[in-house]
Write a structure and sequence with these properties.
The protein starts with a strand and ends with a helix. It is built from ten helices and twelve strands. The protein folds into three domains: about 90 residues, 4-hydroxy-3-methylbut-2-enyl diphosphate reductase, catalytic domain (Cobalt-precorrin-4 Transmethylase, domain 1); about 80 residues, 3-Layer(aba) Sandwich (Rossmann fold), CATH 3.40.50; about 100 residues, 3-Layer(aba) Sandwich (Cobalt-precorrin-4 Transmethylase, domain 1). α4 runs parallel beside α5 and α8 runs parallel beside α9. By secondary structure, it is an alpha/beta fold. α9 links the parallel β10 and β11. Bound molecules: iron/sulfur cluster. The site of iron/sulfur cluster has 15 residues, from α1, α4 and α8. Iron/sulfur cluster (SF4) binds next to α1, α4 and α8.
């Protein structure tokens, strides 16, 4: 079966994930035990490579100095850095600058408004970090992920609003509007990641203009990959795959145009492999 494959200009790692991985790789190459507080990248093979070199995943800080501790691109709350300092641990901070921007706005609004709404998923490590930065200023913090969550918020005289970096911008704006309706004085700071927004726009544009079926490549545990797949699914049949082995011929008909895009934590070579698998169907 022959299909036409269309790939937008931007796929593969974003600069935040690329730089975080590079710093992690350099730390691992220096030798010694290296612990990552969570997944440094949502891709099994990229992770396996680092693990083969000596990286281990940990869910909490070690008790005593020795290992280097990697804070992932998603960042961490301030109390984690304070505790690591107290224990004398070496911390390698790979927080993406755009996540740090969310943290700074949360901290600032925590001081100014006293109540901060974080639009995002409460179980996501970035959100847990951002909540910590707002709370470090004594602020009340509310996490909302949907319009329904926002509608349940109580009335407050003042609120600040920020977004998880990978939250879809259009949904953030809708939710922020509902929050504003339940608040006397509100300051909304759009902290969505422009790289993610650009990918979603690019994918939608290409889907609407030139594609019959979409294939989104990325980890199922990656928030921005999930959001990208959800966005694509609003306009075209969409399949989320983690690797080329998951591509199925029954998804396509002869002559169809297949659009391939990826989350920001997907290595380019995985996208290349998926593209090749679609081409040989
Ligand atoms: S998606 Fe955006 S915020 Fe997340 S790591 Fe990449 S550049 Fe940073």
């Amino acid at each position: 079966m022959s299909v036409q494959v269309i790939r937008p200009r931007h796929t593969g790692f974003c600069f935040g994930v690329r730089d975080a991985l590079e710093l992690t790789r350099r730390t691992v190459e220096e030798g010694g035990e290296v612990l990552a507080l969570g997944q440094v990248v949502h891709n099994a093979r990229a992770l396996e490579e680092l693990e083969a070199q000596g990286l281990h995943e940990a869910s909490a800080l070690p008790e005593a100095p020795g290992p280097s501790v990697v804070v992932t691109a998603h960042g961490a709350p301030p109390e984690l850095f304070a505790e690591a300092d107290r224990r004398g641990l070496k911390v390698v901070d790979t927080t993406c600058p755009l996540v740090r921007r969310v943290q700074h706005h949360a901290e600032d609004l925590g001081q100014l408004a006293g109540t901060v709404v974080v639009v995002g998923h409460s179980e996501h490590s970035e959100v847990r970090g951002v909540v910590g930065w707002a709370a470090s200023q004594g602020a009340e913090v509310e996490v909302v992920a949907s319009l329904e969550d926002a509608e349940r918020l109580p009335w407050r005289a003042r609120r600040g609003v920020v977004s998880q970096s990978t939250f879809p911008q259009s949904r953030f704006r809708e939710i922020a509007e509902v929050v504003a309706g339940r608040t006397g004085e509100v300051e909304v700071r759009d902290t969505t990641c422009p790289v993610v927004t650009q990918r979603q726009r690019e994918a939608l544009r290409s889907l609407l203009d030139e594609v019959d079926v979409a294939v989104v490549v990325g980890g199922r545990g990656s928030a921005n990959t999930q959001a990208l797949a959800e966005t694509c699914a609003t306009v075209r049949p969409t399949h989320l795959v983690e690797s080329a082995a998951e591509v199925r011929p029954e998804w396509f008909s002869p002559g169809q145009r297949v659009g391939i895009t990826s989350g920001t934590s997907t290595p380019s070579w995985v996208v290349d492999e998926v593209e090749a698998a679609c081409r040989v169907l």
